[in-house]
Amino acid sequence: MAMDPTQQKALNALEQYVLLSKSATSPRAAAELITQATSAPNTYVFAELLQTPNIQSLRTASPEYAPYLTLLKIFSWGTWSDYTSTPDLPTLSDAQSSKLRQLTLLSLSTSHATLTYSYLLSALALPTIRVLEDLVISCIYAGLLNAKLDTLSKRVDVSSLAPLRDLRPNSVPHIVAVLDDWNGRCVSVLAEIEGQVTEVRRRAANRRRREKEHERILEKAMADDRTLKDTAKAGGKRGAGEAGNGEGYDVDQGDMMDVDETLGRGGQRNAKRGGRFAGLGKRLGG
After folding, report:
1. 70 or 184: which carries more pLDDT confidence?
2. Which of 101, 109, 161, 157 shows the shortest CA–CA distance to 131?
3. CB distance 106 to 161 below 8 Å
4. Which residues contact 68 (CB under 8 A, 6 or more apart)?
């Protein structure tokens, strides 16, 4: 994984002071080296310098130089309030004051994405909003953080930070505990999501079964309808054919004969009647 560019730049800026620490064998030289390192541009990480033997030797130095070791620790992982609450520390130059306030802003931003002007003015001990905004802008241009100044709401919205702050001593167990708690919450959330996914899949499967059953019933109904129509058409054709062939009428042959006999007798009577009056007609005509 590639290192953050700002972090790499800060490490490169500190490297020369780590090399110079090898020759800083006296407490005075070590104290002066700390002053130079904390005042130089682009030096924002100090753990490597802090661990060098000549710097650590300030623990047993005289009260004149021993506070410089404490000062370097504050620049490594402390804040402005740590500096102001610790007695007998060296006076800071303007460059050191600006850098420690920048580092303090980084520390404050790790726990709060939104920082109000009033909170920052107090935490950084700044006199005016203009000075505060200039400090935030300097951090943005230096690549220490990405943030937006909301002048109407008087707040700073921080979106990302450069990994520049060193860890306090004995802070690893606390970090591990925080990570364990975070991991537990992640596992719980994942389990809940998996449960929801399972429920969604179950509902989807039920919906697909209902849709297939609906399609099956619909297809069966359509097939039954086609069968009924085909049956009706076939029955109609058979009825028309039987009617055309005379097979559609069931007439008794005896009845037909009775009708013929009746018609025959009637015809004979008419013929006799006509014969009887025929002669009369001739006579009258004659």
Report:
1. 70
2. 101
3. yes
4. 30, 31, 34, 35, 58, 90
Q: Give per-residue pLDDT as tens, 83-108.
A: 999 999 999 999 999 999 999 999 99
| Look-up of token digits 């069968």 | 227
What pTM, to 2 d.p., does this model score?
Answer: 0.64
Question: 88: left (phi > 0), else alpha (psi -120 to 50), else beta?
Answer: left
Q: Would you list the DSSP string of 88-150?
A: TPPPPPHHHHHHHHHHHHHHHHHH-SEEEHHHHHHHTT-S-HHHHHHHHHHHHHTTSEEEEEE
CA–centroid distance for 273 within its chain? 116
Cα 269 to Cα 27, 142, 282: the distances in Å are 169, 142, 20
Place of tokens 């800083």: 24
Beta strand residue intervals within 137-256, DSSP E: 145-150, 155-161
The pLDDT score that the predictor gives to residue 282 is 44
Mean pLDDT (whole number) for 216-232: 86
Main-chain phi, psi angles of 278, to 5 degrees:
-65, -40
The amino acid occupying position 118 is: S
E strand residue ranges, the chain = 114-116, 145-150, 155-161
> Which amino acid is it at 208?
R
Could you report the per-residue pLDDT of 36-46, keeping only the tens digit for each? 999 998 999 99
